[in-house]
Design goal:
By secondary structure, the chain is of the alpha+beta class. Among the domains are: 118 residues, Uridine Diphospho-n-acetylenolpyruvylglucosamine Reductase, domain 3, CATH 3.30.465; 110 residues, Alpha-Beta Plaits; 84 residues, 2-Layer Sandwich (Alpha-Beta Plaits). The protein is 35% helix and 21% strand. The protein has 15 helices and 18 strands. A hairpin with a 4-residue loop joins strand 17 and strand 18. Helix 8 packs across helix 11. The longest helix is centred in the C-terminal third of the chain and has 21 residues. The protein is globular. GO terms for molecular function: FAD binding; oxidoreductase activity. Its cofactor is FAD. It comes from Clostridium acidisoli DSM 12555. Keywords: FAD, Flavoprotein, Oxidoreductase.
Length: 457
């Protein structure tokens, strides 16, 4: 076994190194906690110098390194598959600089999304990316190009990353990007890192774009008798130029499961499916004008009601239920969370297809997601099915879903990433030339294949 004593020279605080059996199992898994890997060492660095020295040691000794943030991932990207070192960046969680003139904030990768959002909103600024998991780290959000609910209006994490400080596989430190709006200065290496799931480099600092905080925000719940009618309304809402901040869709049975899990009551029970919309802006008149456009569309398209959530407790309950949909399913059954993305106008067709494969394999599938950007979230639920039957049928079902998404012009992941769980499906539905070039890029950044190896591609 390799001698890891040198790490104790790098990390002076011995409590920040755990060896072998000292490592808590949560650091060997992800948020699903179904699969577990193995590692010889768990290290908690506190600055880029420590990360650099750890990576130099790993590079010289051919040690696999698995980077980790808050551990909220759903696809196994933080599971160490080949032993080695788990590099947990959660202690690197400081705000380093707030630049109000350039509307940027520079942070370490371990800061949590909810803490960043709370900090900037107290000073009337706004960081728009809003994934459902607010306890995720910013480094993790960047590594998966997290999108979330506001993507329909504001875009995804990539649109707000201006610069990154990186530690490469060999321990070198590299800076990519700057605090500038335009950049036509060679290849954009920053954009290669965003969404790379820790396979190319370790993020040790990020400069993010902020915008002024909208002064007004309204949440609206719209029940429909069918999911088809709800999804059909989405494109009409967008084409009406009503400028929604978020458009979520949820089926009734998913809501009921989350209600039971949280012991909270959804504000309405009339619909078989719902759209959950938000609108924001600086003036009441702007917000009202925009949501009235959506109201006209939805009521003309079969909506049962158009419910403006005026009470803070109703708003909080609704979004808590929305945020707990995956967790609620996982609490009652093993399941596979999916985040396939398709063109917006193909959303209903794809969801209808999920009903076909559900019947074909006898496996329940629930659906919800970001209707405004075609990001369909599915829970493929094991229920009482035996292990052998589940392992056989679920693989076939998932293969069908990923093949259908490709047929419709979609992609395997909108925001969760590929990690371990989706890797076989990703490789199957992605053109070989694309995968070959991803591997070539990987070899340039990490010629020994020690960073999060055997993940994604």
């Amino acid at each position: 076994m390799l001698n890891y004593n040198y790490l104790f020279e790098i990390i002076k605080d011995k409590d920040r190194i755990k060896l072998g059996k000292e490592i808590d199992e949560k650091y060997l898994s992800d948020a699903i906690k179904r699969n577990k890997g193995e590692a010889e060492v768990l290290v908690f660095p506190i600055n880029n110098e420590e990360v650099s020295l750890i990576m130099k040691f790993s590079y010289e000794n051919n040690i696999i390194v698995t980077p980790r943030g808050a551990g909220t991932g759903l696809v196994g990207a933080t599971i160490p598959t080949n032993g080695g070192i788990v590099l947990d960046l959660s202690l690197m969680n400081k705000i380093l600089e707030l630049d109000k003139e350039n509307l940027t904030i520079t942070v370490e990768p371990g800061i949590l999304l909810k803490d960043l959002q709370e900090y900037v909103e107290k000073i009337e600024l706004f960081y728009p990316p809003d994934p459902g998991e607010k306890g995720a780290s910013i480094g993790g959000n960047i590594s998966t190009n997290a999108g979330g609910m506001r993507a329909v209006k504001y875009g995804v994490t990539r649109n707000y990353v201006m610069a990154l400080e990186l530690v490469l596989a060999n321990g070198s430190i590299m800076n990519v990007g700057e605090k500038v709006i335009k950049d036509s200065s060679g290849l954009d290496l920053k954009d290669l890192i965003i969404g790379s799931e820790g396979t190319l480099a370790i993020i040790t600092k990020a400069t993010l774009k902020l915008i002024p905080k909208p002064k007004k925000s309204v949440s609206i719940l719209i029940p429909f008798n069918s999911l088809d009618k709800a999804i059909d309304s989405v494109i009409k809402i967008i084409n009406k130029n009503s400028k929604p901040t978020a458009i979520e869709f949820i089926e009734k049975d998913v809501i009921e499961n989350a209600e039971n899990y949280l012991q909270l009551k959804f504000p309405d029970d009339k619909g078989e499916a719902y759209l959950l919309l938000t609108f924001d802006g600086d003036e009441d008149s702007e917000v009202i004008s925009n949501y009235n456009k959506a109201k006209e569309v939805c009521l003309n398209n079969g909506a049962i009601d158009f419910i403006i959530l005026n009470k803070i407790e109703d708003i909080d309950r609704t979004w808590k239920i929305r945020g707990a949909l995956v967790t609620a399913v996982e609490a009652v059954s093993e399941q596979e969370p999916i985040d396939i993305v398709v063109p917006i106008n193909k959303t209903a067709e794809f969801i209808n297809y999920t009903k076909e494969v559900q019947a074909k394999y006898g496996i329940k599938i629930t659906s919800f997601g970001h209707a405004g950007d075609g990001n369909v979230h599915l829970c493929v639920i094991k229920g009482s099915m035996g292990e052998e039957e589940w392992n056989k049928k679920s693989v076939l079902l998932l293969g069908n879903l990923y093949e259908k998404s490709k047929e419709l012009g979609g992609l395997p992941s909108g925001e969760h990433g590929i990690g371990l769980n989706k890797r076989p499906y990703f490789l199957k539905v992605t053109d070989k030339v694309n995968v070959d070039y991803m591997k070539k890029i990987k070899s340039v950044f990490d010629d020994k294949n020690i960073l999060n190896s055997n993940k994604a591609y």
